[in-house]
Request: fold
Amino acid sequence: MFQEIQEIFLWLLGAEKQIAELSIIQMITRTIIVYGIALGMIRLGKRRFLGGYTAFDILMGFVIGSIMSRTITGRENLLSASIVILTLMAIHYVISYITYYYDKDKHLVKNEARQLVKEGELDEKAMEISKLGECDLLQAMRQKGSVESIDKVESAYLERDGSITIIPKKAEPKVLEVEVSEGVQTVKIVVS
Reply:
């Protein structure tokens, strides 16, 4: 009985066949198993895994995606692919741990935020180092800061993950004078 179940399971996986020999049922079975394993590994990797926070996170996503696709199509053994993915996740965890607890090693994996605008003045050197054009910065200002000119920006940063953060300048309060007739004094209203 156990032997028959094992044979059915091995047939469903297409364990002994080459890619050209896999049936649709075998590919579907591999897809379900690989998806389940990948989902479990992502859950083990915590919320940061494949979150796109750093270049290392993105690299992990590409590598693991490639390994998973090879496993589904039968080019890679399911067990060996699982071991490789677990090893990569362990490396990811160790590097995340090191960069969290040891500030001096953060630069090895993570970039630092770079200030592009300070008090309404564009930092041309930071823009050049970032390979970021002024048009890109203006687009980010309109999308994220609702600001249309650089002089209205308190500061702008190119963040570690490649996004741009815009901090608009605080608007000066406006004073409105309202004159009321028939002996009433002038009323000033401050709008900020």
Observations:
- The chain has a mean pLDDT of 76.
